[in-house]
Structure formats: C-alpha cells, structure tokens
Amino acid sequence: MTAHDRLKAEAEPIDGARVQFAALPYRFEAGELQVLLLTSRETGRWVVPKGWPIAGKKPHRSAAREALEEAGIEGEVGKKPLGAFVYWKRLTGKFVLCHVWLFPLAVQNQRAEWREKGQRELRWVSPADAIGMVDEPGLADLILGFANQYASQRGKSPAHTKSSAGGQRRAG
Q1: For residue range 99-127, what is the model confidence (pLDDT) as tens digits?
Q2: 27 bridge partner residues
Q3: Cα gap 66→55, rounded to integer Å
Q4: Which end of the chain is more exposed for a tag (fewer CB within 10 A), N or C?
Q5: pTM for this structure?
Q6: How far apart, in whole angstroms, are the C-alpha atoms of residue 140 and residue 146?
Q7: Which helix (H) or strand (E) covers residue 105, if one does?
Q8: CA neighbours within 13 Å on the CB side: how many for 95?
Q9: CATH number reported for the structural domain that contains residue 141 in this entry
C-alpha cells in the first residue's frame, strides 16, 4: 500500500463511523509541556480542534486547518497521527459516531483574529490536567501517551508534573 493509499484509507468511514482529523496543539512554557484545549460550541465540553476531511488536503493538513479556524494557532504539524479515538458527535436531531485521527501540532504562533474567535474558551494546561478535563477516554489515553513519550526523552513523569490552575471538567 502506498502512502497515498494509506492517507486515503484514513478518510474512509470505519465500521460505520465518520472520520475526522484533529490536532493536539502543544508548547513548552518554562520548560514544561502544555497542551491546548478548547470548548466545543454546542456542549462546552473540553476538546481538541477537529473537523471533517477537507477535499484536496492531506489528513495532517486538515487537522492543522481546524486548529487555525477554531483556535487561531499555527505551527508545525506532524505527518504521522498519534493514534485515533472515537466519540459521538451531536448533529441536528441525531448523534454520529466519529473516528478521529489525532496529529501533534507544535504551536509557533497565535493570530490576533481567527474564524471562530469568541465562540470557544481556550486554555493551555498540563497534560495531567488535560486528561482530567476531556470526556473521551481515548483522547485522554492519546494525550497521556504523547506526554509519556515527551517525558521519556526528558527523564520526567508527566502524569505527576505540576498541575496548572483551572484544570476542571466542564459539565456538558
């Protein structure tokens, strides 16, 4: 299977689930790893930027585009997904099962203006806080795996790094 075939397959429905692409925005503040979470517009749940495949764009580029539209952030997006998680997306009058491929995004800039500015709350948090804030267990697992990978390279344990203020779950 060629790389093009693999990317095309990632956008196909999986066992009846619709496919989305997401970014895990991250940065280092005072030497500590932080990830960016934002609230969903419908329910106020803490999530990562995500959306439907964009025609003509590779999956990682679709994820980066969602991060720009939803959070105004730009940076270097990884071409290889960290993995995938599933969740139920609320659409008008129904729920749709979504299979979401998550790509790391090293944030380098946040624009002053972006498409969905003011429609969501954005919060930079430690991976430990993020794990407690997101509702999807699969997303929490991917955040933990990403943090552990970073920590193993730095000799730290991210599950025990200091929590930032405000790591609270939002009812949704």
Answers
A1: 999 999 999 999 999 999 999 999 999 99
A2: 34
A3: 13
A4: N
A5: 0.81
A6: 10
A7: strand 94-110
A8: 5
A9: 3.90.79.10
